[in-house]
């Protein structure tokens, strides 16, 4: 019987995902590499590469690890409540790991965990509530794009830094060309990092897409 590699035992997909997310959260997207992961896990560069092949595979491991944390919505939960629970949970996961969003960019997220814990149940609930599959997918996509864009727009782990950077950029504008932006900083800046902007927009989308009785 072939002996299992101790290095592969340490470099499980879950361990790789956790270590990669820690690097992203602590040091930023520029610090993530197979070599950095190998050092964290005390394995060789080749061992990490055997598990995920390339950067795309590594990012897929990370997103699948996060998707596994999405909630199971109890059967019988109303469509609007279930939809809000699912997408707010996704939003919280994404805003907790901005470095992952930077590296993933526009790559589709089609892992089994996300499909099983978010996409399929969301679509199934919508169809059961009276939507056609096309209507269900359209509603899902609207809410997914809102969630992804809201999470990626600003680093919500550092709201003070995001506000300071925006303040500096807006303060440098010509007041004659940008009277609202330059003259209303006290009113313009707070919504940039206010999570309630997302939650309110999500509820509006849910209401606009609510299936007919």
UniProtKB/TrEMBL annotation:
Signal peptide: none annotated. InterPro entries: Homeodomain-like_sf (IPR009057), Tet_transcr_reg_TetR-rel_C_sf (IPR036271). This is TetR/AcrR family transcriptional regulator. It comes from Streptomyces goshikiensis. The lineage of its organism: Bacteria, Bacillati, Actinomycetota, Actinomycetes, Kitasatosporales.
